[in-house]
Amino acid sequence: MSAIITTAEPRAGRPKVTYRTAGDRAVLVEYGHTIPVDLSVNFFAHASAQRLADHPVRGVLEVAPGLRSLLVYYDPAVIGQDRVVAALEELHDDIPEPASIVLPSRRLTLPIAFDDSASREAVNRYRISTRPDAPNVVDGNNIDYLVRYNGLPNREAFGERILRTEWWNAFTGFYPGLPSLLPLDPRSEIIAPKYNPARG
Q1: Cis peptide before 135, with omega less than 30 degrees from 0?
Q2: Angle between helices 81-93 and 39-54 (to 10 degrees)
């Protein structure tokens, strides 16, 4: 049995929407269908969460926006899954197309260390306890691996690429307080495969 409840095809600049069952008290709404995710899809997910906050639906308890998704928790004694989906479809019609979405935000300036003792300790702990042959661990750090994986000439170029743009916190999750960042200038994107297995 498929977890997909229904889908809505992209239209008027809005992304494709897929509604999935997420247990008996939640609906997972997925926006778009491509990886990597662009800012417009993430903005649409956040705009949907904001619209629900501004126009509450009776029985919807909580929403959690993700990179390109929205997890909607509801009370099944108050509202059924079909009505949750219908309310979300109505809500999506009221959201402007992603190119014109404006989200409340704030700018933070934080210090950054690319190769510090705490990071080296975490990398070394991973190498010792999880995977001694991890390809992304080079000389006790993962910076040189990232430099090579992204086709950069050296560490300085790596730092310059990251620092030449501002980064949007697309969502906070996976681990408490862990931001998932997207560059406002897509040319500054840094990519790398996840640790396999993931760090715990």
Answers
A1: no
A2: 110
Tell me the per-residue pLDDT of 97-108, one tens digit each, with 9 for 90 and over.
888 899 889 999
Name the fold adopted by 4-100: Gyrase A; domain 2 (3.30.1360)
The domain limits of the chain are 4-100, 117-188
Per-residue pLDDT at 1:
66
DSSP the chain: --SEEEEE--BTTBPPEEEEE-TTSEEEEEE-S-SSPPHHHHHHHHHHHHHHHHS--TTEEEEEE-SSEEEEEE-TTT--HHHHHHHHHHHHHTSPPGGG-------------SS-HHHHHHHHHHHHHT-TT-TT-BTTBSHHHHHHHTT-SSHHHHHHHHHTS-EEEEEE-SSTT-EEEEESSGGG----PPPSSPP-
Q: What is the mean pLDDT of residues 61-89?
A: 96
pLDDT for the residue numbered 150: 95
- Is this model's pTM higher than 0.70 or not? yes
Q: How far apart are CA 15 and CA 12, in angstroms?
A: 9
